[in-house]
Structure formats: structure tokens, C-alpha cells
Amino acid sequence: MIESTGNNGKSKEVIEDILNQISNSKLKIGDKLPSERILSKKYGVSRIVIREVISYLKAINVVESVQGSGNYIKNNYNSSIDLTFPDYEVEDLIESRKILERSIAYLVFKYLDQKLITEMEEICTRFNTAIQNKDLEGVLEEDYKFHNLYARYSKNSIIEHFLNNLTSFIHQKVWRIMKKDYLFTNTYNRKTLENHENILKALKEKDLNKLLNSIDLHYDTIIEGLKN
Hints:
- It is built from 11 helices and 4 strands, in the order E-H-H-H-E-E-E-H-H-H-H-H-H-H-H.
- By secondary structure, it is mostly helical.
- It folds into 2 domains: 2-84, Arc Repressor Mutant, subunit A (Orthogonal Bundle), CATH 1.10.10; 90-227, GntR ligand-binding domain-like (Four Helix Bundle (Hemerythrin (Met), subunit A)), CATH 1.20.120.
């Protein structure tokens, strides 16, 4: 059963249409889905939305990807599968995190101490180790810890709650698939580690402009990675 937590999900609309086509036998097991570009044009949505859709369909075992060939219908939809799918688009979640992290930068500077710096350094070290070991779960976990720690240093429980809710999608199966399929290349991993290290460097130097620019670059890198 598809459940949602919002009201205006383009992804959910596309998913439901594809599942309806499977239920009505317009799409059968073994059929190849149109390319991301064609699906994007057909539904009038971004490529990121289509990739989110494919990731969801893979998460419920309806679609499988064949490297170098495309995405194929693997199974009929089992409505008993319970996988909550938020109506909030991944791109909106990422943009919201970026806005909130920028907005609390001055608060983080206000409460900045050596404990924060030390913990972030340790996280970046583990982050690098996870990348070297091609450990997807480790990368996701250290990424979550980094941003959770940053939010905590706003010392504002409401802001921290909002940011942590936005960051919690890292633990969802759909995001894990998107990360693995689109954001787990050597080039991307090097960039994202560098972005985290630049945020840390800006905090060490207490340079607000550098921090804001580093936050922008970090989230822009994620969006570009999902588009390409």
C-alpha cells in the first residue's frame, strides 16, 4: 500500500500511474520502461523526480535495472507491501535543508566550541574511511551524524527538530537506492567529502561567508549529481 505524508507529490502521481498500468496489463513483467528523458517529458517532471520514482519502484521490487540496458518490470505490484513514500520531493527536501542550514549559521557560530570541531573532524575521518571502503551504509550514517551535529549546535530545539526531520530521509530505503544508483561514484564521493571538510574549515576559521558558500556548494553538488 502506498502511503504518503504530504499533499502535492509529483513522484507519487507518476508512481501510481505506472502501477495502474501494471495492474491493467498495459505494462507486463519483462517490459522495458521508457528512458528517463522520455518519462520526464511525458509526465512533465524533472529527471530527479523520475529517478525518485524508479528508486521507489525498485524498493518495492516492481522494477529492476539492467546496467547498460534500462529499467524493466520485474514483478506485479503487491499492494500488501507497506513502504511509506513522502509526497515531499527529494529536490524540495534538499533545498529546504540548504535554506535551514544557511539560516542557522550565525547561531552555530555563537555556540561554536572545540568539542564541535573535534566531533566533526572525527566524523570526516570516518566518512573518508567509509568512502575508501565503498561502504554505502557508513557514508550515509556519517553524513547524517555531521548534519545532525550541525543542527544541534543551533541550540534551538524547534530548528533542530525541523532539520533532523528533513535529514531523516537519509534512512529511507528509497534514498538508499537513489544514493547507490546516482550518488556513489568515486568523483561524487570525493566532492561530497571535500564539501563537508570545507564546512568544517569555515567553522574553524569562523568565516561566515565561507560557511554559507560551502553549504551552497554541498547541496548544489547533490542536486547536480541527481540530475546527471
